[in-house]
Design goal:
- This protein is mainly alpha-helical.
- The chain has a domain at 2-102: R3H-like domain (Ribosomal Protein S8, Chain: A, domain 1, 2-Layer Sandwich).
- Helices cover 58% and strands 7% of the residues.
- The protein has eight helices and three strands; from the N terminus they run H-E-H-E-E-H-H-H-H-H-H.
- It has helices spanning 2-35, 49-61, 89-96, 103-126, 137-140, 142-145, 149-156, 177-195; strands at 41-43, 65-69, 77-81.
Length: 196
């Protein structure tokens, strides 16, 4: 058991060293990418989850934007973008589908979508307005509520004269606020005198 614990510890230290070395290597690659003026984005080789998280962290510290793409765990890779060349949603969708980003093709698709939306809008304007409901809801429920139910109810309502008024006989405490406060203060003074 002690030799197994020593072996596990040795493996953990080796993993830690590998992660530190990998991070240093990624920091160098990212700094080269930042200095390369003609390169708006860089695609890295597929890597495992831990390596990708290290690269994302390095990119964030360097002030870059990074995304992971790929379907299964073995083929997932990281792309790092300079802030001024941050990807659009369309560009990200293309990478997610596994396609290469083509700005000319994307512009053509956008124009086609706009044209289709304009045509659809024009078609809606040409078509007649959708018909309204064939009858009033009151007609539908006339057998339940009658034809003048609301009017009859409004006529029978009279104001309740005692609404909001409570007779003095029903009140428990008939003292004014000042009387109640004076009584509380007197009790408080009495308690203080007893304590002394």
């Amino acid at each position: 058991l002690p030799e197994q614990a020593a072996r596990v510890k040795k493996l953990q230290e080796q993993e830690k060293r590998q992660k530190v070395e990998f991070r240093k290597r990624m920091e160098q690659e990212v700094s080269q990418f930042i200095q390369a003026s003609g390169e708006p984005r860089r695609r890295f080789q597929p890597m495992n989850k831990i390596e990708r998280s290290i690269l994302h962290d390095v990119a964030e510290v360097a002030g870059l934007t990074s995304f992971s793409f790929g379907d299964d765990e073995d083929s997932r890779y990281v792309m790092v973008f300079k802030k001024e060349f941050a990807p659009s949603d369309e560009e990200l969708d293309a990478y997610r589908r596994g396609e290469e980003w083509d700005p000319v093709l994307a512009e053509e698709r956008r124009r086609l979508r706009e044209l289709a939306a304009q045509q659809e809008e024009a078609e809606l304007e040409r078509s007649p307005a959708p018909p309204g409901p064939p009858n009033d809801y009151k007609d539908k429920y006339r057998h339940l509520i009658g034809s003048d139910a609301a009017k009859a109810a409004a006529r029978t309502m009279e104001a309740n004269k005692a609404y909001g008024c409570v007779p003095v006989a029903n009140k428990r405490d008939t003292r004014s606020i000042e009387e109640a406060m004076n009584e509380i203060r007197a009790k408080k003074r009495l308690r203080q005198a007893e304590d002394e």
